Amino acid sequence: PPELCILNNCSPSQLEGLCSFLQLSVCSEPFLVRFCGWLLALTPGLSYTSAAILAEQLFLRRVLSLTQPPSRHLMAALASFCSKYSQPLCRVLVAAVLQEPGKGAEQTKLVCELVEECLEPHCVQLVLSQVLEMPLSEKLLPVVQAVLGRQAALPPELLDLLVLTLCRHAPAFAASLDYAKLVTAVLTLYQSQV
Q: Which residues form the Fanconi Anaemia group E protein C-terminal domain (predicted)?
């Protein structure tokens, strides 16, 4: 709809107010899919700041409250949004999920699915750098595994940081099968560099 051009003319606080007025954080999931489709058609596209605000308003509450696998509609909306605005989505949504220590397996699985199927390669690296900024935990290991499954070549500095992080945390993961799989994957993919 032509009215959506207003999204490009709002200040961040106006955009947050508009999202609140339209109740975008609680809109139905079929509408969410349609709304994300409209966002893709916007010309010019959203600014980084506007896309980050919309990522937070549209998805953050839904994803953090998941107690079962996300619906088909929610994944379609996320995939649609990611196709044009994956970096703001990573900065807002993925960072929040990774930093929530109490969040369960559904959020981690969703991040893995985004990494494996939706995010652009430079955003996959961004996810890995976000993970490596935090203390490594059992919850984060599948995310790193998903990154390695998707990323053919890591920049040397990111690979060095990954290897150092894995070495540093080895004693804490002595009995972890996921950790063993991750180390094996790193040694297989980056044998010469390691």
A: 1-193
Q: Which residue has the tokens 């379609």?
A: 76
The token pair that represents 141 in the structure block: 């290991």
Full-model pTM: 0.86
Beta-carbon contacts of 59 under 8 Å, excluding residues fewer than 6 positions away, are 74, 77, 78, 81, 89, 92, 93
Q: What is the pLDDT of residues 22-69, one digit of tens each?
A: 899 999 999 999 999 999 988 888 999 999 999 999 999 999 988 899
Can you tell me the distance from the alpha carbon of 148 to that of 160, in angstroms, rounded to the nearest whole number? 14
| Distance, CA of 36 to CA of 54 (rounded, Å) | 10
Which SS3 state, helix, strand or coil, does residue 43 take?
coil
In the chain, domain spans:
2-119
Place of tokens 């980084």: 48
Token digits of residue 19: 């999202």
Query: What is the topology classification, in CATH, of domain 2-119?
Result: 1.25.40
In this structure, are residues 36 and 79 in contact, taking their beta carbons and an 8 Å threshold? no
Cα-Cα-Cα-Cα dihedral sign, residues 76, 98, 178, 115: positive
